[in-house]
């Protein structure tokens, strides 16, 4: 096989892999993207954030509607400038891409202010600001703009392919994140004290099931998904010590949330008093297991509390555990809590 034929077949397979099955007009795509943006702006989408930086996109934030990915958003920040990309999905297909390049014009700056004669002044730096809007429907529509002016509509297939390849990497990372949360249904032991002790890779010895701690390690990037799972009544094998219940996925999700954010006012949000003169925390378990309505009301209250307080959460380095009586080094090394007034 000649190199030219090999490259042709490789490109053919690549283009087939990204073939769009959504036969929408440009107007339909724009309407759909606008509706996704509106839901995002109203905080009506479930948000996730991958904590590790992506090679192609920098950050990687996902937005979900009814467990379906509808938007990926990533920004790669450089010393001066940035690039950003948004991918709008429908039924697993990318239907729209918005890509921006905002870069420092180093060459132009050097011409105006030679480094050997003029001291560096970042306030005098100028920037390019190029915006690409690409719709992938019945036809491909490609718009390249500078400022408010469209400067080209010629399709740059190489750029489209590169961006689509990035969307695949971002989506795979998001899928791994969601899989970790979904693995909570396999938790067999919710820690109460430091026995049994288990080991996660090179992490310090900690209590409980490694699947639980893998989710806690995601930290802020998975909070909204955990709240969303607070209505999942799937039974797990993990026992609730002293109270005779099995943990549901919803219970483990909330416990994970408590370990990520310390100081959530559980009983205030639950709407029942702590049983100080009886079995203590049993009022929590009895209330939640009494009805699905109680769980849904609790979920709604926790969601409202988080949305109201999210901007006031601060990171605190600490080895304090919230969800167990443990004295080992905390596997995450800290937690979020409300900023002290």
What is the structure about, briefly put?
The protein is α+β, with helices and mostly antiparallel strands and 341 residues long. The chain contains ten helices and 14 strands.
Helix/strand layout:
Elements: H1 3-17, H2 26-41, E1 46-49, E2 61-65, E3 68-77, E4 81-90, E5 93-104, H3 106-112, E6 127-136, E7 140-146, E8 149-152, H4 157-182, E9 197-198, E10 206-207, H5 210-216, H6 223-228, E11 235-240, E12 245-248, H7 249-260, H8 266-270, H9 282-290, H10 292-309, E13 313-317, E14 334-338
Antiparallel strand pairs: 1-2, 2-3, 3-4, 4-5, 5-6, 6-7, 7-8, 9-10, 11-12, 13-14
Helix pairs in contact: 5-7, 9-10
Tell me about this structure.
By secondary structure, the chain is of the alpha+beta class. It folds into 2 domains: 20-177, no CATH class; 187-338, no CATH class. The chain has 10 helices and 14 strands. The chain has helices at 3-17, 26-41, 106-112, 157-182, 210-216, 223-228, 249-260, 266-270, 282-290, 292-309; strands at 46-49, 61-65, 68-77, 81-90, 93-104, 127-136, 140-146, 149-152, 197-198, 206-207, 235-240, 245-248, 313-317, 334-338. Strands 1-2-3-4-5-6-7-8 form an 8-stranded antiparallel sheet, with helices on both faces. Strand 3 (68-77) and strand 4 form a beta hairpin. Helix 5 packs across helix 7 (249-260) and helix 9 (282-290) packs across helix 10.
């Amino acid at each position: 096989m000649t190199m030219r034929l090999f490259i042709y077949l490789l490109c053919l397979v690549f283009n087939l892999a990204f073939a769009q099955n959504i036969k929408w007009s440009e107007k339909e795509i724009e309407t759909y993207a606008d509706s996704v943006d509106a839901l995002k702006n109203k905080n009506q989408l479930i948000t996730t954030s991958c904590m590790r930086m992506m090679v192609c996109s920098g950050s990687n934030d996902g937005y979900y509607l009814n467990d379906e990915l509808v938007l990926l958003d990533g920004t790669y920040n450089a010393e001066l400038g940035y690039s950003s990309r948004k991918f709008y999905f429908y039924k697993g297909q990318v239907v729209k891409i918005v890509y921006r390049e905002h870069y420092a014009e180093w060459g132009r700056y050097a011409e105006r202010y030679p480094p050997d004669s003029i001291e560096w002044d970042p306030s005098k730096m100028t920037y390019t600001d190029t915006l690409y809007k690409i719709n992938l429907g019945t036809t491909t529509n490609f718009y390249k703009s500078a400022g408010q002016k469209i400067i080209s509509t010629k399709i740059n297939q190489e750029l489209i392919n590169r961006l689509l390849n990035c969307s695949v990497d971002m989506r795979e990372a998001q899928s791994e994140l969601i899989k970790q949360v979904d693995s909570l249904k396999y938790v067999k032991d919710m820690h109460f004290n430091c026995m049994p002790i288990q080991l996660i890779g090179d992490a310090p010895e900690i209590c409980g099931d490694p699947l639980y701690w893998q989710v806690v390690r995601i930290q802020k990037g998975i909070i909204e998904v955990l709240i969303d799972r607070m209505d999942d009544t799937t039974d797990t094998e993990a026992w609730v010590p002293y109270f005779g219940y099995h943990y549901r996925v919803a219970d483990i999700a909330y416990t994970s949330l408590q370990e990520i954010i310390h100081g959530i006012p559980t009983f205030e949000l639950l709407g029942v008093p702590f049983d100080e003169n009886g079995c203590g925390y049993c009022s929590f378990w009895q209330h939640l297991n009494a009805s699905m309505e109680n769980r849904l009301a609790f979920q709604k209250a926790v969601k409202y509390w988080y949305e109201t307080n999210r901007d006031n959460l601060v990171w605190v380095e600490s080895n304090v555990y919230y969800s167990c009586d443990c004295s080992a080094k905390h596997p995450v090394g800290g937690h979020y809590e409300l900023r002290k007034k």
